[in-house]
């Protein structure tokens, strides 16, 4: 199977998973704000519709909405692109990492047990063995089976913790209104905090708002922790909070606008130019861009 057919089958598998979860493409669009034509291209296996770095970010958001592991979905996509896909494809709804064996410990144990039983039967039939020897052979077979069971005993499945870095801003993208600030009651009087103050406490000391003026891939960290990788489109805004600083890596630095604590930040951004920015209470600084491998 050539690469084009593998990509088409990969997209078809994602479509079947989405339909089995009763999630529409329009619903994914409402959550991620990614254009419907790009979402349709994924399920049609047309992954050349945009640069690979943008497609990886889009696949992560798509997989996150379906409840899949975004990193595993991207790894499978990269494996196909690099012609490292396993000869046998995983069944629908499963994502198998490269190099992972399809034989389960349970299956190996069963095959081992069957082989041992066959050997025991041959021994019992061969020659005229005394009852004592038969008992010894039976005990030995049981001991071997117990040892094999504990060696090949299946491990408990690891619980994968799903990161949801964009949940706080999904409501803003869907056009939903924020709930009014809750009144704090005391025994003698009632005080009300402004909505902006509550939002500031929730996000942190610094609040960074990224607004899209053109389509751009963006990667954001806050105080050294990754907050998300995503595509931002004209008219879309995303908010992040931090205590000390942010870093913003933009694939199209001329396609975004930055606002820190309601103050517009000025920086040298040009269309199609990659910029790595350091943002703190003092403003914007420029960082050197480190080159990484595509699959990182």
Average per-residue pLDDT, rounded, comes to 75
Helix-and-strand structural type: alpha+beta
Q: What radius of gyration results from the CA coordinates?
A: 28 Å
Number of alpha- plus pi-helical segments:
9
Order of helices and strands: HHHHHHHHEEHEEEEEEEEE
C-alpha end-to-end distance: 26 Å
User: Low-confidence segments, ≥5 residues, pLDDT <50?
Assistant: 87-110, 159-164, 176-193
The order of strands across the largest sheet is 5-4-7-10-11
Q: Specify the overall morphology.
A: elongated
Beta-strand share of residues: 15-25%
Short précis:
This protein is of the alpha+beta class. It is built from 9 helices and 11 strands.
What does it look like?
- This protein folds into 3 domains: 3-81, 434 Repressor (Amino-terminal Domain) (Orthogonal Bundle); 105-151; 168-174 and 194-286, no CATH class.
- 40% of the residues lie in helices and 19% in strands.
- The protein is built from 9 helices and 11 strands.
- It has helices at residues 3-20, 25-32, 36-43, 52-66, 70-81, 105-125, 131-151, 167-173, 195-203, and strands at residues 184-185, 190-191, 206-212, 216-222, 225-232, 237-242, 245-250, 256-260, 263-264, 275-280, 283-286.
- It starts with a helix and ends in a 10-residue tail after the last strand.
- Mean pLDDT is 75; it is low at 87-110, 159-164 and 176-193.
């Amino acid at each position: 199977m050539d690469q084009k057919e593998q990509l088409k089958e990969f997209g078809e598998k994602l479509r079947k998973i989405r339909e089995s979860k009763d999630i529409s493409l329009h619903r994914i669009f409402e959550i991620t704000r990614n254009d419907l034509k790009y979402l349709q291209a994924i399920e049609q296996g047309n992954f050349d519709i945009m640069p690979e770095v943008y497609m990886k970010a889009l696949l992560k958001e798509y997989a996150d909405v379906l409840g899949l592991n975004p990193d595993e979905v991207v790894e499978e996509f990269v494996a196909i692109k690099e012609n490292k896909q396993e000869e046998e494809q995983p069944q629908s709804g499963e994502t198998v990492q490269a190099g992972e064996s399809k034989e389960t410990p349970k299956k190996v144990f069963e095959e081992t047990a069957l082989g041992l039983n066959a050997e025991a039967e041959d021994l019992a039939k061969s020659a005229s063995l005394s009852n004592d020897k038969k008992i010894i052979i039976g005990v030995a077979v049981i001991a071997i089976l117990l040892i094999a069971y504990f060696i090949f005993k299946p491990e408990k499945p690891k619980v994968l913790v799903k990161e949801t870095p964009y949940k706080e801003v999904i409501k803003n993208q869907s056009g939903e209104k924020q709930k009014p600030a809750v009144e704090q009651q005391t025994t003698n009087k009632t005080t009300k905090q402004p909505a902006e103050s509550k939002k500031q406490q929730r996000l942190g000391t610094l609040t960074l708002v990224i607004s899209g003026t053109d389509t751009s891939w963006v990667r954001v960290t806050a105080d050294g922790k990754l907050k998300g990788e995503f595509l931002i489109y004209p008219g879309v805004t995303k908010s992040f909070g931090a205590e000390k600083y942010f870093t913003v890596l933009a694939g199209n630095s001329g396609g975004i606008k930055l606002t820190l604590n309601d103050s517009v930040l000025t920086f040298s951004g040009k269309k199609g130019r990659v910029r790595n920015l350091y943002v703190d209470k003092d403003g914007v600084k420029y960082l050197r861009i480190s080159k990484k491998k595509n699959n990182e």
